[in-house]
Amino acid sequence: MKKMTVLLLILLLAFSSSVLVAQEQEPVTVTFWSHTHPPMVDLNEQLIAEYMELNPHVTIEYQVIPNNLFFETMLVSTSTGVGPDVMNMGNAQLVSDYLPRGLVAELDVEALGFESLDDLLATYVPNALSGAMVDGSYYGLPSEINTDMLAIYTPDLVEAGYPEDWAPTTWDELGEVAGELSRFDEDGNQTHRGFDLVYLHAGWFSNQFQTLAIQTGCTYYNDDLTESTINSPECVAAAQIWHDMIFEYQAANPSLSSRESTVPLQDYIDGTVTMTFIQPWGMELVRQGDPERWENTRLVALPQVDPENPSNKINAYYWAVNSGSEVQEEAWKFIAFMASYPGRWLVDVNFLQGNVGMDELPEAADFPYADQWMVGLDSGDFFQLYPAANETHEALRVALENILFNNTDIQSTLDNLKAELDFILQ
Amino acid sequence: MTKRFAQVQNPLQIALLIGIIIQTMVMMVPLAYMLSTSFKAQNEVFLLPIRWIPAELLVENYTTPLEERPFLRWFFNSAFVATSSTILVVLTSALAGYSFAKFKYPGRDFLFWTILATMMIPLEAMIVPLFILVRDLGWLNTYQGLIIPAGGSAFGIFLMRQHMLAMPDELIEAARIDGASEVGIFWRIVLPVNQPALSALGIFAFMWNWNSFLYPLLVANRDEMRTLPIGLASFESAYSTNYPQLMAVSVLAILPVLLVFFVLQNKFIESMALTGVKG
Amino acid sequence: MANRTDRLSAQRISARTILQSRLFTYRTRQQVWGLLFALPAVTLFAVFAIYPIIQTFYISFFDYDLVNTPDYVGMGNYETIFDSPIFINSIRFTFVYAFGTYIPTLILALILALTLNARLPFRGFWRMMNFIPVVISWVVVSVVWKLMFHRNGLFNAGLDSLGLMTPDWLLSTNYAPFAIIIPSIWKELGFYMVIFLAGLQNIPNVYYEASKIDGASSLQSFRFITVPLLRPTIALAIVISLIEGLKVFIPPFVMTQGGPAGTTRVMALIIYQTAFANGRFGRASAMAVILFLIILSITLIQNRLYGTRRDIY
């Protein structure tokens, strides 16, 4: 009898453990969509392959969305229940478009491999997760955290007679020197720009404007988000900086910029502009686009409106999970895997992910300008969070295009923009 | 040759001939430019003066995009979807046109004019609820979602009704007296008699569906379900500064339609002319 | 007893026989089949056209972001959009585009059709070549012309050789509209040329011969024969082309995305952006209703101006 009982128990154990094993091995498919950033896409694909090898029962279906259709496709698909399980979205959109619609799930601390939220938070620097945090709830892990520096192609500078280590402290200084670096042909048409930004889709206009705005103290809306403050003196000042680069210093010239490329730094790589804003991932892009150009590139801190009190804008992309996903736990596990190789992201793609102890990573030694980037991260701030990101950016772009292409009066253009933005708040 | 030119008798005609030659050549310039650019190297694109024949014919401009993006898949999708919905359009239009032309029943005219009225509504005006409907049906990113909603054509119904009105009633009556079934009459008499209009409609529907943009843009947002025009637009974004490749891809995108056009050109053009001619 | 047997045996008769028997009159049978034949098309339209259209009207009275339950706002959306200078501007520009494209197109098409009608050799060839742009998709047309309108592109190269100024077409708020209109004319010309040509060829030669005998000049026969007999065709062309112009979407979408500074934002584009980029489906539906009403009015006005539809149908 006893033998039978023992036998039965063993059989039961064997049976239940095999059932458990069988359950664990049930095939799962996790869908993942991202925008088109070639180095990031490459590393995504590598990590996906590795993850699938380690977890044979998991299939990750990865799709790369073209940038000009990215925001619409993501929002519509996710809103209509046909979006991906794992998404990679900018912090502004995440908070203003996805959260109000309840489209993203709160962090699943356990699935991510932590015992408590605090344990998780302790592994990141404070700023890293705050871009995806609302009312104390967190919604994503950072895939990239960005601040801006100024990229300078040194040979042009030296040719114009400036010291190799020149760095502008104020915007005026940048404008004047950049203006001298611009070149014109016999008919007076500009052929080369000393400094310029990019004029791609609406997100870019907003991104760059925010870099200036955070220095002048400009916000798109007031604190309770009841009214737009885009026509404030601070915002006019921010627009003025960009405007003057074109019309006063003749450093910048939108009509010389390629306004469509997927690679935002294409103009810099092609050599039609000497200086431009650059974020960490930009370094790898330039290096891949033209290694020689990269050799001769120097990065310095941005000029400041108030050099005594520097401010830096942070923007980030987060990995988040679709709240309608049926495989959320698996999705978070996958994200945890992707986020567990900060060194590789650092070196292969030049993505900063804000982990504590980044500077001690072995790869950090190979990470150019590591110190400056980390400083920017520590002392920087996310821009104000506001609703209807896509709409706001689109309206802002129209206003900026008027100011920058048509040289319209800044105050009145921004006054009109304020009316539109007030509209959006309704 | 001489016989044709014998027709040209007065100076006015000569002037007109020269005029039309110039005009046609001007019209072809963008196409020539597209073809020429598609074989150029990137740094040749904006060289002035324009070099119509590139220094070297870069065939890679054609092969590289095919490797990088799923063009063949997109091509297949377009072909499959266009063919299927063309068949559906021709069938439903013929049936409905026949019904509206040769049958009498309450509500017939109301149905016809209502369907006709839908031609006035731009797709953009109803795309939102249409999209939600397709989603609710679970047809997003499926072939049926691309084919079935595009299976009805108000224009097609109008055209077929027009032609069937002109069909002699006696033909159908005689068949009925002979004991033929209604379906048999439709299949064996009505369809063959109206074959020119049917093929014209088929060509029209195929071209329209092949080039359709907004609806597939929203309904097929997965890469592998995209149709060719959408694929082209997305390619434009990703490789927009590689103009030669972009032009090569554009050439590939129009080849199928051009081929069909050249083979069936008379039918094509006449099918367009049918819209302007009274029934 | 005999009646009962009749009725019982009648039940065993097949359906087909029933349909063919005098129980169902010829008329009823006609009606049933008529409805059956129309059923596939009617179903498709009811489901995929009528229903969405009604829905559009319905949603336009709500605030809807596709996720949360719709919020009733009555005429709120309509008030909002008419307060929006962007929307008003898009109506204006849509008309500018429609007229700016199709008036030149129709005039040129008529001239071409008249030219081709003048018994030129190789007429079929000219007709075919001019028709090629028509069969090419709008996307390809937009992509190619976008390249041609590049600052250093073909168009400017041509202008430069003529000594004319060379603006940055896609960047300039003054010239961007032309960058949309010119390719549209190029694409549509062949289509209307063919329509006019067909209309011209439908005019019996007898009329011209008769008028020649009567001593009429070419101008007179044009004025008194061609124009009146071509009127229905021209009227049809105007209606079709105007409606097409008001519905335009792809060229501004691909070439300028409504820019620069929103100057080429047509109504269809703004509906698309409001719905799919901004997620405001209620507002977008209201805009769509307005677009529909505009098209409807145009059609009704045209109808009044050019006589009843029986002319054309």
Describe it:
The complex is a heterotrimer of chains A (426), B (279) and C (313). By secondary structure, chain A is of the alpha/beta class. Helices cover 47% and strands 15% of the residues of chain A. In chain A, the strands form three sheets. In chain A, strands 1, 2, 3, 6, 12 and 13 form a six-stranded mixed β-sheet that branches. Chain A has a five-stranded mixed β-sheet with strand order 8-9-10-7-11. A two-stranded antiparallel sheet of chain A has the order 4-5. In chain A, β4 and β5 form a beta hairpin. The radius of gyration of chain A is 24 Å and the shape is globular. Chain B is mainly α and 279 residues long. Chain B has helices at residues 2-6, 11-38, 60-68, 71-102, 108-117, 123-136, 143-147, 154-165, 169-177, 182-193, 195-210, 214-219, 228-238, 243-276. Chain B starts with a helix and ends with a helix. The relative contact order of chain B is 0.13. Chain C is mainly alpha-helical and 313 residues long. Chain C has two domains: 2-45; 76-306, MetI-like (MetI-like fold, Orthogonal Bundle), CATH 1.10.3720.10. Helices cover 73% and strands 1% of the residues of chain C. Chain C is built from 14 helices and two strands; from the N terminus they run αααββααααααααααα. The radius of gyration of chain C is 27 Å and the shape is flat. Residues 308-313 of chain C have low confidence and may be disordered. Chains in contact: A-B, A-C, B-C. Chains B and C meet through α2, α4, α5, α6 and α8 of B and α3, α5, α6, α7 and α8 of C.
